[in-house]
Amino acid sequence: MYSKIQKLAAEFIGTFALVFFAAGSICTDQFLRTTGQGSLGLLGIAIASGLVIAVMYSALARISGGHFNPAITIGFWVTRRSNTFDAVLYWLAQLAGAVTAAYSLRALIPEETWRAVSLGTPDLARDFTRSYGILLEGLLTFFLVFIFFSTAVDEPSTSNKNPDLVIGLTVTMAILLGGPLTGAVMNPARALGPAIAARHWANHGVYWVGPLAGGVVAGWLYDALFLKKL
């Protein structure tokens, strides 16, 4: 049994890694482009984001559950797998990890590089409205949280699947679809950290409303439909 401090530290470290590598890969892609060394491209950024989730879940899930995302935590809260106090603490740890990671990137990466991509802060594509942004982020997060519950919460399936790989692949495929349109962050902490460090707040509400709504619906639906005896 791990203590609350250990669980919060795991959530801090996991979310730090997520933002550091996911947002950092966007900055690296920009650096490669401006120096004529090619680019990571959408596929490279998607793979980096999926891999960091898979690796950190594998390393830390046994301690904290491996949320690293307020949208997953709210799914646990709405299904009463987490009380309000613990959910708030998880959120604070996740947000602190995200902000710390973003400022670390800002300190390490050349200013002209990170400013060009707002330190990896997500934003909407041109002519892609906020309503569509909320809907897309909500749908992508729905699938992420639904699959998280299926592979990491549903006990009959956890012994037969590799939740770290499945969750990581879900993040990768979501970015391949939604990356050019919204950034496909599916995670308010991932959006908030770079937004604070880069002071880029355009359409920021999209990345709270959509993912949190998606997390609530996915957690409640999987719990009601598959985890409870009808």
Question: How would you portray this structure in words?
Answer:
The protein is an all-alpha fold and 230 residues long. It has one domain: Glycerol uptake facilitator protein (Up-down Bundle), CATH 1.20.1080. 77% of the residues lie in helices and 0% in strands. The protein contains 10 helices and no strands. The two termini are 32 Å apart. The model has no long low-confidence stretch (mean pLDDT 95).
Which fold name is given in CATH as the topology?
Answer: Glycerol uptake facilitator protein
Mean pLDDT: 95
For this structure, what is the CATH homologous superfamily?
Glycerol uptake facilitator protein
Radius of gyration: 17 Å
CATH class annotation:
Mainly Alpha
> How many separate structural domains?
1
CATH architecture call: Up-down Bundle
Helix content: over 70%
The first-to-last residue Cα distance is: 32 Å
Count of DSSP H/I helices: 10
Give a count of the beta strands, DSSP E runs of length 2 or more: 0
SSE topology string: HHHHHHHHHH
Overall structural class, as computed from helix and strand content, comes to mainly alpha
Unreliable segments of 5+ consecutive residues? none
For the largest beta-sheet, the strand count, sense and barrel status come to:
none
Strand content: under 5%
What distinguishing features does this structure have?
single chain, globular, mainly alpha, Glycerol uptake facilitator protein, 230 residues
